[in-house]
Amino acid sequence: MEDDCEDEDFHVSSTIDHMKIDCKDDWKHRRGTPFPSYEKIENSNLFGLDIFETIDAKHLFKTRFVENRAYARPYQFALANATRPPTTADLEAPEQQNSEFLTGNSLVNKLAVAAFSFVAFPYIRDFISTLIGQTSLIDLGKMAEIFVPGISIVYGTFVALTLQICFDRQASLQRNVSTESSLLSLLARDLLLLFRNREQDAIDACQCVADQVRSLVRESRGSELMGLIYCDPYARIIDIVSNFELDITSPSNSNDTDQQKTSSLALISRVRDMCKEATGIRALRLSDESLSLPPTHLQVLISLTSQMLLGFIISSLAYSTSASKVEYAAVFALLCSVYVHTYKYIEDLNDPFVGTNQVRRSSTACNLLQIKMLFCSHPLTKDRVDFDDAVVQKTSTAFRMPNNDFVRSTTSGLGSQAFKINDYE
Q1: What is the C-alpha to C-alpha distance for residues 197 and 255, in angstroms, rounded to an integer?
Q2: Which of 338, 403, 13 is nearest to 207 (CA)?
Q3: Please, are residues 261 and 224 in contact by the beta-carbon 8 Å criterion?
Q4: Whose CA is closest to 27, among 47, 3, 52, 48?
Q5: Which of 127, 252, 387, 407 is the most exposed place for a label (fewest CB within 10 A)?
Q6: What is the tens place of the pLDDT at every residue in 108-164?
Q7: Helix (H) or strand (E) holding 381
Q8: CA distances from 247 to 244, 252, 269, 353, 422 (A)
Q9: What's the pTM?
């Protein structure tokens, strides 16, 4: 690990477990403590060459950090839209950057695959015929009649298993995130009720809820994991509640009646239970987000498809006549279209946040928008709790401490030092 600081900017670079941390004036911060950003995976290259990055390394980066994750449309949670009322359009999935043609789901794309396969079939057929020669065509044709049906059975079973895995993952992910968001909504209301007479504690606790909402709406899985390491929102809520419990149970506390103390202790117990449950559900959600199919799984699917197509071509060489070449080309085009779009469908299911078959977000977005409307309208949190990222100024970053004062961070390695800003500009 090395640290290199200069007058106007600094650069920190570190490699931990194949994760490259490479930041320059763009440290990611949360309310309470800063943490470093991350870059692409390094030290997982083919033959040790930096110019060749293996498929497995790309897969690990994609599944570990899930950068395209969003459980609601982010623009609704921007500070500029604090008073903007939600509509049914805000419950839809976030807009995709890729067109339908590029994702392989359009009719034009399907027809293009079939047409290309039809035109390419004679050339592929002639090339394979040149490789194997005319003498062994009959023997290879008989062999294809034996192994192609077996491969077809394996292919069908493998596709069914793959689809079941993808559907189960999406169902579990949707169930866990919906439950977590509903718990967050209830937790926000209980915190406002618990701290109705303690303004600063209410702001600090609700900001923790807002930080978790921001993680679900704007940030990648990698950013959320870093946030858990350095500044877990649920852990911060428990700390605030524990300090409040010490205050009301202190022998020197004579401001609250016994009935008020009993009511507060009951709310504290409920808040802790919800934080405990939400933490467990969050762990399940984070696990579901990383359980995409490995590259080897998709490579096996491609291998089975290639073997079936090869068997079909060999059979066409052994038994076809000049009059039946067009029919064979048409069947080959149909098979290629089916196999390619089956693969595209599985690839689409493998990423629950991109494409056509995404995880359903309406229930989760409804709960998150409910929290936003609550914080933007409640007198304790209005204009004091936000869902925006930290404010970046010049070469250092200002972020909110638990006492709601702004501080500026200077970082050395993975540690940090915070200095209070008396006059924040």
Answers
A1: 12
A2: 403
A3: no
A4: 3
A5: 252
A6: 888 888 899 999 988 888 888 887 766 667 777 777 788 888 899 999 999 999 999
A7: none
A8: 5, 9, 15, 44, 28
A9: 0.74
